[in-house]
């Protein structure tokens, strides 16, 4: 069974999370356009860290787990320890785009059930 959460807390932070994810998406896109500009990727990492902290604060652990894995992969790209940077960036973009959909699901069902995120989590790992 999923983890029941407080929908009021999610409603309170969802807009800010979306805005921060959009900033992260733009930073990641800028990095893709110029791979030498690692500052853009660091901005993306900082935005993901903000989202992760917010999700932990409102006890959305499935979504927080997703952002934690996103942070780890972003750091691995920065450290140049991933086998395929193109694939890693593509998976990061997928995750940035999928997280708001998962939050929308949480808003309607109130069950933080990360099993639906498992394929994406595996890709991030």
From TrEMBL:
SUPFAM superfamilies: Histidine-containing phosphotransfer domain, HPT domain. GO terms for biological process: phosphorelay signal transduction system. Residues 10-107 form the HPt domain. InterPro entries: HPT_dom_sf, Sig_transdc_His_kin_Hpt_dom. Keywords: Two-component regulatory system. The keyword Nuclease does not apply. The keyword Cell cycle does not apply. GO terms for molecular function: protein kinase activity. This is HPt domain-containing protein.
């Amino acid at each position: 069974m999923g983890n029941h959460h407080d929908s009021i807390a999610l409603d309170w932070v969802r807009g800010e999370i979306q805005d921060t994810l959009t900033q992260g998406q733009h930073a990641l896109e800028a990095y893709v356009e110029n791979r030498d500009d690692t500052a853009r990727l660091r901005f993306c990492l900082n935005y993901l860290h903000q989202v992760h902290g917010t999700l932990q604060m409102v006890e959305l652990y499935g979504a927080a787990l997703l952002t934690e894995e996103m942070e780890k992969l972003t750091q691995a790209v920065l450290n140049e320890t991933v086998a395929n940077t193109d694939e890693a960036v593509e998976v990061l973009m997928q995750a940035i785009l999928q997280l708001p959909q998962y939050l929308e699901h949480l808003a309607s069902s109130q069950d933080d059930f990360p099993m639906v995120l498992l394929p994406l989590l595996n890709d991030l790992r």
